[in-house]
Amino acid sequence: MRKSGGSGVEGPGVEEEDQEEEEKGEGKEEKEEKEQERKEEEEEEEEEEEEEEEEEEEEEEEEEKKKKKKKKKKKKKKKKKKKKEEKTICS
Q: Ranges of Acidic residues compositional bias (predicted)?
């Protein structure tokens, strides 16, 4: 415990001041912990958002591949039909 002044006698407010400083330190730790938790939550949210975006991009790519495949198949079918018509005309 501290002593007030230079007289060597403990003052009545010194103990309260010590307690207040101790509480401030605890409050500061709690505040830092909360801040750290908040940052971690934000990072997790950002990671989740990035994962969702990647999934969406993959889905879009899959859709694009399906469309191209379908278009290619349709084109092939059309070409086959045209070839068949030409063969029929020639015979």
A: 13-24, 40-63
Mean of the per-residue pLDDT values for the chain? 82
User: Tokens for 2?
Assistant: 């501290």
pLDDT surpassing 80 at residue 8: no
Task: Say how many CA atoms lie within 13 Å of 28 toward its Cβ.
Answer: 6
8 occurs within a structural domain: no
45 C-beta neighbours (distance < 10 Å), count: 10
The answer to whether position 5 is within a domain reads no
CB atoms within 10 A of CB 14: 15
From residue 13, give the alpha-carbon distance in Å to each of 3, 19, 22, 24, 51: 10, 10, 14, 16, 57
Whether residue 6 lies inside any domain: the answer is no
Global pTM value: 0.46
